[in-house]
User: Which sequence fits this backbone?
């Protein structure tokens, strides 16, 4: 079985669209303070340029874990 971890940073744009930044295999354990600092910097400095518009608001970050098992 293979386990994959991902950290999703979600944002709202000035066009009222939701966008996400996907970070594969984040350093464990995930430091909530570091994530919040990064999110704040992304919003304040408008780091990314999305076709859906400029980031204006942070949404909750999510950490996901996916387990995959080959059947054959």
Assistant:
């Amino acid at each position: 079985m293979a386990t994959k971890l991902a950290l999703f940073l979600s944002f709202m744009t000035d066009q009222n669209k939701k966008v996400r930044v996907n970070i594969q295999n984040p350093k464990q354990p995930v430091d909530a303070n570091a994530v919040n600092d990064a999110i704040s910097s992304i919003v304040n400095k408008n780091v990314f340029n999305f076709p859906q518009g400029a980031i204006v608001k942070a949404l909750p970050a999510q950490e996901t874990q996916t387990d995959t098992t080959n059947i054959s």
Observations:
- The CA atoms of residues 29 and 61 lie 14 Å apart.
- The mean pLDDT is 95.
- The chain has one helix and four strands.
